[in-house]
Every structure is written in structure tokens, then in C-alpha cells.
Design goal:
This protein has 215 residues and is an all-alpha fold. The chain contains ten helices and no strands. The protein starts with a helix and ends in a 10-residue tail after the last helix. Bound molecules: protoporphyrin IX containing FE (HEM).
Amino acid sequence: MRALLTNKWTKVALFCICLMPMAALVWRGFHHGLGANPVEYIQLSTGEWTLRFLVFTLCITPFRKLLNLPDLIRFRRMLGLFAFTYVCLHFLTYLILDQSLDLGAMWKDVAKRPFITVGFLGFLLLIPLALTSSAGWIRRLGGKRWQRLHRAIYFAAVAGVIHYYWKVKSDVRMPLVYGALVAILLLWRLGDCYLKRRAASGAKLSPQHAPANAP
Ligand code: HEM
């Protein structure tokens, strides 16, 4: 498994797989496969793929630890950047095809419809994460600050789930499935942080770390 995860071609293969939903949209576009309302089709497809890629990205750390596969980390940045790519396509479809590039109308819509407001908030949260995803930015910000900033991905995923839930109105099964996945991943993360802190404070109190003149 380790050989597969560290092989450079695995990354190339995953990159190609991540491009498939986009390629499928282009293919459908050229073959009249986008249904009666192509704008809606593109909007729904790119929205769902954004949420899926956010969940895939959030799965990397728990899977690394639970399955003892540290090399999975090689794919986290790529998956996160694909989430950002799909949300950009989602937003641009809305801005160009739905709102005809009318920024005034877009702002009015963002302010008026709560489901758009929350989606927009999720999008805004992802921008600094995409901009600071490189190794250079980890160095510049320092590991701790970078990690703190990148926890915003959980808020973006929650915003995405609420956006989806408010959009569908009647059949809320899929938003609830994504909501449950994000909740499990968030709870796992909180539990992991709690255990790490407890272990750290336990280590401080242990005899090896006690001052030499302690009773
Ligand atoms: C983290 C960010 C976002 C996520 C995860 C997300 C996800 C989704 C999902 C899953 C849907 C599909 C709902 C369905 O199947 O019925 C959707 C629909 C939609 N989203 Fe987003 N979205 C995000 C950001 C945005 C932004 C920034 C905008 C625009 C400002 C936006 C505008 C829309 C619109 C207009 C629809 C409905 C499309 C239609 O019914 O034709 N979303 N979004």
C-alpha cells in the first residue's frame, strides 16, 4: 500500500480522476446532454462536486491516523484545491450564466436569499485556504498558525451543507447525508485534539518532565 501511495503516478492518476466530473460536463455540453436547463444542471453538478471534494479532503487526516497510512497526506492539498476549483466553476456559472455578470444584481441576490448568502460565505472562507495552500505559505505562517487558518475548511463545509439543505427544501435526504458526514469528521477532529491536549498535559506532569528538585 505504501508503494502505491508514494508512487508519483498515483498522484497523476488521482489528478485525472478529479478532472472527470469537469470533463463529463464538457462532454455533455457538446452532446446535448445537459437536460432542459443546462445552467441548472451545471450549477447542481459543480455544487455537489464541491461538497464531495470538501468531504474527501476532510477524510484524509482521520484515514491517515486510523488506517496508519501517513502517506495519504500527499493527496490532501490536491483534493482541497479541486474543491476550490469546483466551487469557482459553481460561482462563475452563477455569476456569468445566471446573473449575466451583473454584480449589482448578484449582491442583491446574495443579500436577499439566505441559501445564497450561506453559499457565498462558504466560498469566501475557501479563498484564503486555496491561496495559502503551498509549502511556502506553511513556512511563512508557521505550522501552528497555518493549521489554525486551515480549520476554516470545517466552517466552509458546514456552510455548504446548510446552503444545500436550504436550497432543496423538500427532499433533504442528501443534504442530511453530507451533514452527517461533516458532523462525524468534525467530532472525530475535536476528539483527536482533546486526546492530544490531554496527552501533552499528562506528559508535563509525568516524572520525566518534573523539575529535578520536585518532591
Ligand atoms: C462551499 C461553497 C458551496 C457549496 C459546497 C455549494 C454546494 C451546492 C450544492 C450541493 C448545490 C446543489 C443543490 C441541489 O442539488 O439541489 C448548490 C446549488 C446552488 N448553489 Fe451552491 N454551493 C456553494 C457556494 C455557492 C455560491 C458561492 C453560490 C453563488 C453565489 C452558489 C449558488 C448556488 C445556486 C444558485 C444553486 C442552485 C442552482 C439551481 O437550482 O439552479 N453556491 N450549491
